[in-house]
């Protein structure tokens, strides 16, 4: 008996080794099956959510589902996008990382923008950007990076890190209205990309100037009156065209600089007035200019009579419509009619020159 325990049967020992090996192999196979099944489920879940199947783009149901999902996810990142005291760095711990409102970050990359909204201040650039963000093939930065006018020394890598992640086929864009009037900007933008598409929202320069002044006094209420700032000499009626609210409205002068670097076909002009009265029409032209399917249509808008601005209708899954902030559509400062007429007379030749350069008449008085 002792001999049996000391020298077990070789056949039994071999059998035990085989059983142990088979058990180990079985455990390994079970682990691999579990792991692969989990990955497949994850991939199917992600693909079913992120794949923008072209065959469904014409389907209203598909668009509403995309927009509804985007609306729900965007609640978390709206604060980041609008710059309310947070930055991409504070949210993630890494420069330039942000949550992708379309839920597609894991297959997306950061790229330099292919389109820029370059102006003009108080022309309707914020409205245009918010409307364009409805399109599933547009990825737009919510805040204004001011790269080409203020932060150019930081370099293109920094600029790229500020952009939202985007999939192949999506257009990355940003808006900084100051670009249109900054002298150095056209050459800098051209150095980044000769083929970038440029969008300018223009508005009656007199109305735009009053809107600009209204914003200024909301922040610094004790500055001189509009009339005192607009004239170098009120008694002679000499206009101070270098005062920023008036200087921005010299559209022909600013457009001329851009045309020295980019062909007219690469610059799309949006009517700020028609963006209010017919947002779907203006958005249709912008989508055509960007080479995108016309997905944003009149069914996405309704006119808010209180604000005097179009708002976005309630997306599926949202409890309320989306209107622009309280600063949009506020009552303008009261300006004497004689001052307004003097400004219209001043701008008339500049507007006519701009119409010729633009190839369209915007109908400003």
Q: What does this protein structure show overall?
A:
The longest helix is centred in the first third of the chain and has 41 residues, at 10-50. Helix 11 packs parallel to helix 14 (337-358). The protein has a 5-stranded parallel β-sheet. A two-stranded antiparallel sheet has the order 1-4. Strands 7-8 form a two-stranded antiparallel ribbon. The chain is an alpha/beta fold and 365 residues long. Residues 1-6 and 37-102 have low confidence and may be disordered. It has helices at residues 2-6, 10-50, 60-82, 88-92, 125-132, 155-162, 185-192, 205-219, 226-230, 244-247, 251-259, 272-277, 279-289, 337-358; strands spanning 109-110, 115-119, 138-140, 165-166, 171-175, 197-202, 231-233, 238-239, 267-271, 301-304, 309-312.
Quick synopsis:
With 365 residues, the chain is α/β, with parallel strands linked by helices. It has 14 helices and eleven strands. It has helices spanning 2-6, 10-50, 60-82, 88-92, 125-132, 155-162, 185-192, 205-219, 226-230, 244-247, 251-259, 272-277, 279-289, 337-358; strands spanning 109-110, 115-119, 138-140, 165-166, 171-175, 197-202, 231-233, 238-239, 267-271, 301-304, 309-312.
List the helices and strands and how they pair.
Layout: H1 2-6, H2 10-50, H3 60-82, H4 88-92, E1 109-110, E2 115-119, H5 125-132, E3 138-140, H6 155-162, E4 165-166, E5 171-175, H7 185-192, E6 197-202, H8 205-219, H9 226-230, E7 231-233, E8 238-239, H10 244-247, H11 251-259, E9 267-271, H12 272-277, H13 279-289, E10 301-304, E11 309-312, H14 337-358
Parallel strand pairs: 2-5, 2-6, 3-5, 6-9
Antiparallel strand pairs: 1-4, 7-8, 10-11
Helix pairs in contact: 11-14
């Amino acid at each position: 008996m002792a001999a049996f325990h000391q020298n077990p049967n070789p056949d039994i020992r071999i059998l035990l080794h085989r059983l142990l090996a088979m058990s180990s192999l079985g455990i390994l196979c079970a682990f691999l099956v579990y792991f692969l099944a989990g990955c497949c489920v994850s991939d199917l879940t992600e693909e079913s959510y992120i794949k923008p199947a072209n065959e469904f783009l014409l389907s209203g149901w598909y668009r509403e589902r995309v927009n509804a999902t985007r609306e729900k996810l965007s609640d978390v990142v709206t604060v980041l996008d609008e710059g309310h005291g947070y930055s991409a760095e504070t949210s993630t711990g890494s420069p330039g990382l942000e949550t992708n409102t379309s839920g597609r970050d894991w297959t997306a990359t950061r790229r330099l923008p292919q389109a820029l909204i370059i102006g003009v201040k108080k022309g309707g650039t914020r409205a245009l950007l918010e409307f364009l963000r409805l399109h599933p093939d547009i990825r737009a930065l919510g805040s204004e990076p001011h790269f080409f006018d203020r932060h150019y020394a930081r370099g293109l890598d920094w600029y790229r890190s500020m952009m939202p992640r985007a999939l192949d086929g999506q257009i990355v864009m940003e808006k900084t209205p100051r670009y249109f009037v900054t002298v150095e900007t056209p050459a800098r933008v051209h150095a980044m990309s000769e083929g970038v598409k440029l969008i300018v929202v223009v508005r009656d320069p007199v109305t735009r100037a009053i809107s600009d002044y209204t914003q200024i006094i909301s922040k610094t209420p004790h500055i001189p009156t509009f009339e005192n700032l607009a004239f170098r000499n009120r008694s002679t009626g000499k206009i101070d065209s270098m005062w920023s609210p008036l200087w921005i409205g010299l559209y022909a002068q600013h457009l001329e600089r851009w045309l020295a670097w980019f062909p007219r076909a690469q610059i799309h002009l949006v009517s700020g007035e028609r963006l209010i009265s017919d947002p779907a029409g203006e958005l249709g032209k912008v989508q055509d200019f960007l080479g995108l399917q016309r997905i944003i249509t009149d069914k996405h808008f309704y006119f808010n009579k209180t604000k005097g601005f179009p708002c976005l209708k309630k997306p599926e899954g949202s409890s309320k419509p989306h209107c622009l902030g309280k600063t949009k559509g506020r009552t303008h400062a009261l300006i004497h009619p004689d001052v307004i007429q003097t400004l219209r007379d001043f701008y008339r030749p500049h507007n006519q020159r701009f119409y010729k350069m633009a190839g369209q008449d915007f109908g400003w008085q």
